[in-house]
Amino acid sequence: GRLRTVVIGCGLAGRQIHLPLLRAMPEIELVGACDRDLERARATSAAFGIPYATDDAADLLREARPDLALVLTPPESHAERACAGLAGGIHVVLEKPFVYEVAEADRAIEAAARGNARFTVIHNELFYPAVAELERRVAAGEFGALAAVHYVSANRNQRFVPEPWYFQARGGRMGEALPHALCLLVRL
């Protein structure tokens, strides 16, 4: 069967990136959307053919009965949302940054270990062709010892202009962009 999927957070990333991709995937059935702004949740649900909209994440998980929840909210709510989904046996995909505190990460890891569900954090550059090529070349020993790392990032899609919370989050723009670089560095 299809994977019953809900989206928690109907901001720009959800509307412009995640939902168009999810809707195009035949194995995904979008069954619910949640946003603290109920009108935005309703408008997003109408735009993407999602049958259930709410402003209460607990209500969404209970009523929509999802297999998978995408958490697209600011990082302050990630640990709570992940633990709630995992406790209900719901797999969870979290936008990055994951969390701000190690204790929050530990809570999510422990919740996953206790249940029959898993979670992952989105890092959208891991599967770029250039990254795959770099991994291949590093594995083949084409480079010498690591002396320095330079990471350059630019938003190529100028339709995406972050919402205000993005700049108010811990670390501002760097707090949002740095996880990409760190994830790639750890992988390589």
Description:
Helix 4 packs parallel to helix 5. The protein is globular. The protein has a 6-stranded parallel beta sheet with strand order 3-2-1-4-5-6, sandwiched between helices. The chain has helices spanning 12-24, 38-48, 57-64, 78-87, 102-114, 129-139, 164-168, 172-187; strands at residues 3-8, 28-34, 53-54, 68-71, 91-94, 119-121. It has 188 residues and is α/β, with parallel strands linked by helices. Helix 5 (102-114) links the parallel strand 5 (91-94) and strand 6 (119-121).
Alpha carbon gyration radius = 18 Å
Q: What portion of the residues fall into strands of 2 or more residues?
A: 5-15%
- Number of helix segments? 8
- Span between N and C termini? 36 Å
| Approximate helicity band | 40-55%
Uncertain runs are: none
Instruction: Give the class from helix and strand content and strand pairing.
Output: alpha/beta
Strands of the widest sheet, in order across it, are 3-2-1-4-5-6
Number of strands: 6
Average predicted local confidence, pLDDT: 88
Shape: globular
* Strand/helix succession: EHEHEHEHEHEHHH
The major beta sheet can be summarized as: 6 strands, parallel
